[in-house]
Amino acid sequence: MADCSDCLGQAPHVAAIAPLQSEFPFEWIYIRSIIEVSLYVSLVAVALSTLLSIPVALVLGFTEFRGKGFLRSVITTGMGFPSVVVGLSVLFLVSNQGPLGSLELIFTTEAMILSQLVLATPVIMGVSLAAVSSVDQQVRDAAFAMGGTRLDVALVTIKEARYGLVTAVLAGFGRAISEIGSVLIVGGNIVGSDGESYTRTLTTAIRVEARNGQFDTAFLLGAILVVLVLLVNALVIRLGGTNGGYR
Amino acid sequence: MTMDESATASRDASSGRTVDDPSSTTTSTSTATSTPTLRAVDIQHGYGSETVLETVSLSIDAGEVVAIIGPSGVGKTTLLRLLALFEQPRDGALEYDGTDVWEITTQQRLAFRRRIGMVFQDASLFDASVRRNAEYGLHVRQSWIDRLRREFADLVGLRDGTSEALEALDVVGLADELDRHASSLSGGEAQRVAFARALAFDPDVLLLDEPTSDLDPRNTAVIEDAVREASERGIGVAIATHDMNQARRVADRVAVLLGDGIIEVGETKTMFEDPEDPRTRKFIDGELIY
């Protein structure tokens, strides 16, 4: 039996979901699985978004083409895009009638990743664009003049902009892991009868626990969320921001 | 005056002065029989509707120092960037050891580009240590496997500077500063590292774009000594400067860039004592203001 307190529809593969049952005993499996789902969804979304955003930021930052200004405006606008609208759009995409309906992604972590990818990408891309654009053209020229290829120049740019790029990744991660609206819509906030989370994240769990008056659990989950964010920030800064391999 | 026009005023090599005639292999008295390493033939360039260089010809032979003098904004940097293969001139040819480098593939051009080093007016160092900066030119010439190997050795602290980089840093007196971060260097030291960075991969040609314009006399002297040493190693050097005294001190030949082109090229002594073109005389004397 599973709790689907925020499901908007019943997909075939979640037919076994039981009527609303929002209270679970506080057990380790419940907390652990929620943390796992939160981290898995957010980290995968941010990783994919970073792989997409940095090359686009490099191209946008250093090439001139028609429509570049418009594209920058779209990215900037996307940074403040309402997550509920993103959730609805992704829900439409992955619903049975949507273009991705055949993939049966609705109420899965993959759908949540997709929605977080859409939300995090403008943030990572926008901040990355600002970071790479701030790299001195003369430094790029120096890399070229020393015999660097276009790839070498791009790598130098990434290294020079690494503090800004780390900030971009952290900003994207912050947006993803603290997200509630879209993951609620496309994920369904599902927990199995054994208390294991399928698509429930820390944020959606806090919402459910607070609504049910389980403030102790809600505060505990909130504290875990804050600690996780701090840990990931510290790790990313350590690996990419300070002395990481660039002495 | 364009290059074509100025060519009529050129003299033979025995007079000690010549405008670099693209149809002639004689470019200076000291290297009359050598093949020019890098040769611009009637190149013309500009940006948008503006023409910056109009029919410029210049050659840089192995082991010689050519000073390109002219006022600010006349196109010295543009000329050096064209020589460094940053961009293709609108017209004319750029020959490296007789090969037109814009008539070959990108990969072939990269091989030629990697025989040219350049130092900019600003040091433009990377946000890294002195060693990493000095080694950059060597780094990009390595295979990706070797690069990864080097990164790993750096990570675990198993590596000292490469001998080429150390040698280049020694030329500018900074061999003991390997582990200093670029941001901790003074302006003069940074420019010396930039010079070492361009020297470390042993280029055939070194292009210097007003490398000492912001430096104090001591650092200027270090750079000028390094220019002489590079020349002694057989490296052809082109140095853009508006410092007449510097041109007199370091150059074998001087090219005067005024208006849209080079109006005169000749041996340094002759150019300063008895220039052909009256505008050269006026410019050297500080009477020609652009």
Automatic annotation (TrEMBL), chain B:
Keywords from the named record: ATP-binding, Cell membrane, Membrane, Nucleotide-binding, Transport
Stretches with biased composition (Polar residues): 1-17
One Gene Ontology cellular component annotation held by this UniProt entry: membrane
Source domain of life: Archaea
Spans traversing the lipid bilayer: none
A Pfam match: ABC_tran
Single GO biological process annotation from the record: phosphate ion transmembrane transport
Span list, region Disordered: 1-37
PROSITE patterns xrefs: ABC_TRANSPORTER_1, ABC_TRANSPORTER_2
GO-annotated molecular function: ATP binding; ATP hydrolysis activity; phosphate transmembrane transporter activity
Biased composition (Low complexity): 22-37
Domain ABC transporter: 38-284
Gene3D superfamilies hit by this protein: P-loop containing nucleotide triphosphate hydrolases (3.40.50.300)
Name the record gives this protein: Phosphate-transporting ATPase
Origin species: Natrialba asiatica (strain ATCC 700177 / DSM 12278 / JCM 9576 / FERM P-10747 / NBRC 102637 / 172P1)
